[in-house]
């Protein structure tokens, strides 16, 4: 038995974590299910921890597995970035890039891809501007920022703006591991309506979710409104309510290590779309073009995993 972790171990582990089934993961990496299962067992033996809980419908990450997933992705990301940097002579690109983003995007998504971009393009100086989506649209039109990285599904008027959606994140219902919803394949809004509901009011989350409820003529039993995603997770993990949110924000554990379950919603609900926006009448600068192409590449690599980037 090997005593070293290989890239093969990491790729098989990540694929299994993202797919939730060894059979599906094996198809993604073009290997047999037994080869993937053996590699994961070997990886668990090397690390000395259990990475997955096995159940009849597939697998899900343990707390240690979730922690290791971030490290495994970082290792592969660093390798891919290094290859890309050498192949594309990225040090030749220089200048300032003024990038706008909303609170939720900055807080829960942007830090990892932005740190990658700055590592690959060391001579591009990024200035980050945080604002509400409507203000970022205004700043784009006024030439105050070069690009906005925002929730594109909320843009109502795109006149004069080029909108490129990079990622669509499914909305699901979150509940505690011991909640009655955890054993239901798909949860209806009628059932969610019977539960105490925790409403996230960060950015435009409340507006978006309220529109979904109104579309089906229903109303949540709101027990708490909060701008803190961590507060939402903590209350849900302790079985004090449920919520509907994008999988972009989903993590299977609260801060104290209590498990949270994400379940599909029976009704059809719109996805939360994330992307980049710039002025249509302005040719992107070389540094803006590089950022746009970088984000396309990054998001495409992680398209099957909402929280992957």
Give a written overview of the molecule:
With 309 residues, this protein is of the alpha/beta class. It folds into three domains: 7-77, Orthogonal Bundle (Arc Repressor Mutant, subunit A); 89-168 and 272-301, 3-Layer(aba) Sandwich (D-Maltodextrin-Binding Protein, domain 2), CATH 3.40.190.10; 171-263, 3-Layer(aba) Sandwich (D-Maltodextrin-Binding Protein, domain 2). Helix content is 42%, strand content 22%. The protein has ten helices and twelve strands. It has helices at 7-19, 22-28, 33-47, 63-88, 103-120, 133-141, 189-193, 205-215, 229-237, 286-301, and strands at 52-55, 58-61, 95-101, 124-130, 147-151, 161-169, 171-176, 196-200, 221-226, 243-246, 260-263, 272-279. The chain has a five-stranded mixed beta sheet, with helices on both faces. It is flat. The two termini are 32 Å apart. Mean pLDDT is 88; it is low at 303-309.
Trace the largest sheet across and list its strands: 4-3-5-12-6
What does the main sheet amount to? 5 strands, mixed
Low-confidence stretches: 303-309
As for the CATH topology of the largest domain, it is D-Maltodextrin-Binding Protein, domain 2
Q: DSSP strand (E) fraction?
A: 15-25%
Helix share of residues? 40-55%
Mean pLDDT: 88
Shape type: flat
| Gap between N and C termini | 32 Å
Radius of gyration: 21 Å
Helix-and-strand structural type: alpha/beta
CATH class of the largest domain: Alpha Beta
Please give the CATH architecture of the largest domain.
3-Layer(aba) Sandwich
- Counted beta strands: 12
Tally of structural domains: 3
Instruction: Output the CATH homologous superfamily of the largest domain.
Output: Periplasmic binding protein-like II
Q: Helical element count?
A: 10
The helix-strand sequence is HHHEEHEHEHEEEHEHEHEEEH
